[in-house]
């Protein structure tokens, strides 16, 4: 009897989690296509295959849902990055390559979620959303700046295209390539745009052997 209760509880939890993710996926797709203002909760619920009542059991309102979309995308991007970093986080060159490779993987494997971050930039019409976007970008720039500064300190950078630029400025330039990757992923064939090509271009730009 006890085992049966545990099994049913687990099944209900898995069903709840699936619906939760279905709503998030539908919301991300619609926010991408229509923008925040034009996207209604009724349409999100319909595309997720649930009723609005069910949707409101997961998210209190559209703003709450939008914020959770941000969290889910950033969490997935961070997990992709961490997976690469866990391979070797002590070598600054490997660290930088892991960071770049994780962004490329994310763009290729999750085009909808990648585009959502681009749309988040244009949706910064409130102080809260602007703050969230700035926090995400600054976090990415901070990590990249540390890697570049460490490589310069250890002398692992030769004279690249931008040898005298401040590490933070160079970090910002590299992070901005994330948005270029989204464009390249949509308009270039896989044999032209892939992680190896992206890493090669960044290594040449920065002067990494």
Quick overview of this protein structure:
This protein is 80% helix and 0% strand.
Write up this protein.
It is a single chain. The chain has 209 residues and is mainly α. The chain folds into two domains: 59 residues, Homeodomain-like (Arc Repressor Mutant, subunit A, Orthogonal Bundle), CATH 1.10.10; 145 residues, Tetracycline Repressor, domain 2 (Orthogonal Bundle), CATH 1.10.357. The protein has nine helices and no strands. Helix 1 crosses helix 6 and helix 4 packs across helix 5. The N and C termini lie far apart (64 Å). The model has no long low-confidence stretch (mean pLDDT 81).
- Biggest β-sheet strands, sense, barrel: none
Please identify the structural class as seen in this structure. mainly alpha
**Fourth-level CATH superfamily of the largest domain:** Tetracycline Repressor, domain 2
Shape: elongated
Low-pLDDT runs: none
SSE pattern, N- to C-terminal: HHHHHHHHH
Fraction of residues in β-strands: under 5%
CATH arch. level architecture of the largest domain: Orthogonal Bundle
Total discrete domains: 2
Using only C-alpha atoms, the radius of gyration works out to: 20 Å
Q: Give the overall pLDDT as a whole number.
A: 81
Query: How far apart are the termini?
Result: 64 Å
Helix content: over 70%
CATH class of the largest domain: Mainly Alpha
Tally of helical segments: 9
CATH topology of the largest domain: Tetracycline Repressor, domain 2
């Amino acid at each position: 009897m006890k085992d049966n209760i545990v099994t049913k509880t687990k099944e209900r939890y898995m069903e709840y989690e699936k619906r939760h993710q279905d709503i998030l996926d539908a919301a991300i797709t619609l926010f991408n296509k229509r923008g925040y203002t034009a996207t209604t909760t009724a349409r999100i619920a319909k595309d997720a295959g649930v009723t609005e009542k069910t949707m409101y059991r997961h998210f209190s309102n559209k703003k709450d849902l939008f914020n959770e979309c941000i969290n889910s995308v950033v969490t997935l991007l961070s997990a992709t990055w961490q997976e690469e970093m866990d391979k070797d986080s002590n070598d600054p060159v490997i660290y930088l390559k892991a960071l770049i490779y994780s962004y490329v993987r994310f763009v290729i494997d999750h085009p909808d979620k990648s585009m959502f971050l681009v749309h988040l930039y244009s949706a910064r019409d409130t102080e809260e959303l602007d703050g969230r976007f700035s926090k995400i970008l600054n976090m990415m720039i901070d990590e990249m700046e540390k890697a570049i500064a460490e490589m310069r300190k250890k002398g692992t950078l030769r004279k690249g295209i931008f040898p005298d630029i401040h590490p933070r400025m160079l970090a910002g330039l590299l992070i901005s390539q994330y948005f270029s990757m989204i464009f390249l992923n949509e308009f270039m064939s896989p044999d032209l745009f892939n992680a190896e090509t992206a890493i090669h271009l960044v290594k040449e730009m920065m002067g990494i052997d």
